[in-house]
Specification:
The chain is α+β, with helices and mostly antiparallel strands. It has 2 domains: 4-129, Creatine Amidinohydrolase, Chain A, domain 1; 134-346, Creatine Amidinohydrolase, CATH 3.90.230. It contains 10 helices and 18 strands. The longest helix is centred in the middle third of the chain and has 21 residues, at 134-154. The protein starts with a helix and ends in an 11-residue tail after the last strand. Bound molecules: manganese (II) ion (MN).
Length: 357
């Protein structure tokens, strides 16, 4: 685990005017402590750091957590166990993950720590994790490389008569065979008219000749996600399919060429959105151009019309324009990129010329 992260978190505590930060969410715990189990709690103050978990994860926590005092209380309620430690005092202002912690847990905290002020600091962790270290970029690059390879293998399986669900299962098998820890998220396989639904759930529908198939998938390496989408055609594409595919590809290329540190998420989004609008399909591109990724599949920063913040060097984002036409189908093309000062580095490399299988 990179020792710098705890230091950076403490700098953020100062910036957010907090005395402590309470972490309960798995991705955040992993980021700060190195712990990759499912149940844990960390409290980081300006000069101390405690990690609590239960008996099941005792050995794992001792192996993975560095730079924090590890406690494995008999008490199963980790909030109550934290109270017994006496480190979170009534005079303190403590940040918590307002976007992750349940309401029930929040109420419980207020009861256990009367006097302590709990303040939503969701953005603190999001901001901290959005700029990637070299080792993190290496893991995402590796996850993207496995995804690319898996896609090429999968091409042999994409033929008329196979169901979306079966294709999903085969892709998962191939990715794991190539070293993926698990699927980054539930793979989307959307064929024919189903392609009009950006987040279609693969079902029993069989693929047919003449249809587009959109596959949105990703491998995982050391907890880091890849998120890649390709759309292919079964047999020869017709004129309309060629037109839509070319627009999406051109929009994506325009974004890849223009994204760099210093422009806002909104400006990045507009690179692709303006082109799709010029071609007359503005209402058929109803989602943002992309999102950050790391231990989380959807994270800061966002590339969307509402995101005014500037992109920073070494943030990793997806670039995924799409056009979705009801009762017709859709096309999405998605790559993962690292933002650099003068441009961006594309991590995924599966072919993007229109494949007619
Ligand atoms: Mn995505």
């Amino acid at each position: 685990m990179n020792s710098d992260r705890l230091k950076r978190l403490r700098a953020e505590l100062e910036r957010f005017d907090l005395d402590a930060m309470l972490l309960r969410y798995a991705s955040n715990l992993r980021y700060i402590s190195g712990y990759s189990g499912s149940n844990g709690l960390a409290l980081v103050t300006r000069d101390a750091a405690f990690f609590l978990t239960d008996f099941r994860y005792k050995t794992q926590a001792q192996q993975e957590v560095s730079q924090m005092q590890v406690r494995v209380p008999v008490e199963a309620d980790l909030f109550a166990a934290l109270a017994e430690q006496g480190v979170l005092k009534a005079s303190m202002v403590c940040g918590f993950e307002g976007n992750r912690l349940s309401y029930e847990s929040y109420v419980h905290l207020e009861q256990l720590f009367p006097g302590t002020e709990f303040r939503d600091a969701s953005m603190l962790m999001e901001t901290l994790a959005s700029v990637k270290e070299e080792s993190e970029i290496r893991d995402i690059r590796q996850a993207a490389a496995i995804s690319d390879k898996a896609f090429l293998e999968l091409l042999n399986e994409i033929k008329p008569g196979i169901s979306e669900r079966r294709l999903d299962a085969k892709l998962s098998y191939i990715m794991k065979s190539l070293g993926s820890e698990r699927d980054s998220f539930d793979t989307i396989v959307a064929s024919g008219v189903n392609g009009a639904k950006p987040h279609h759930k693969p079902g029993d529908k069989l693929l047919r000749k003449g249809e587009f198939v959109t596959i949105d998938f990703g491998a995982m390496v050391n907890g880091y996600h890849a998120d890649v989408t390709r759309t292919v055609c079964l047999g020869n594409a017709d004129e309309k399919q060629k037109e839509i595919y070319a627009i999406v590809l051109q929009a994506q290329q325009r974004a890849l060429d223009g994204i760099r540190a210093g422009i806002s998420g909104k400006e990045a989004d507009a690179l692709a959105r303006d082109l799709i609008a010029q071609k007359g399909y503005t209402e058929y591109f109803g989602h943002g151009l992309g999102h950050g990724l790391g231990y989380e599949i959807h994270a800061e920063p966002r590339l969307s019309p509402k995101y005014e913040e500037k992109l920073q060097v070494n943030q990793v984002v997806t670039v995924e324009p799409g056009i979705y036409i009801p009762d017709w189908g859709g096309v999405r093309i998605e790559d993962d990129v690292v933002i650099k000062e003068k441009g961006c580095l594309v991590l995924s490399a599966a072919p993007k010329t229109l494949l007619e299988l």
